[in-house]
Amino acid sequence: MSLKKQYVKTKPVCKVTFSVEAKDSEKVSVVGDFNNWNPEEGALNKLKNGTFKGVFDLDKDASYEFKYVIDGAFVNETEADSYKWNDFAGAENGVLVV
Q1: What is the pTM of this model?
Q2: Residue 70: strand pairing partners
Q3: Closest Cα partner for 42 from 23, 63, 65, 11?
């Protein structure tokens, strides 16, 4: 799993690339505050090498709680900027700061 941030100088956004190595998985999404925790909006594309990848434009100067959904299971990003307890989920969510 990995995160890559690319700041756009002409706009107040950051292009964030989410990558998940999941060769044996059928469906991977990233869900979080930035897409109302909607797996359809956060669907990642499967590449030939088995990695799932997607790029999202997120507003700068903000932080977002998020997780991956890998074949229905919620998984945290190991490279998240931090983690925050979420009472609704009963678990920690990754935090992305852009």
Answers
A1: 0.93
A2: 28, 73
A3: 65
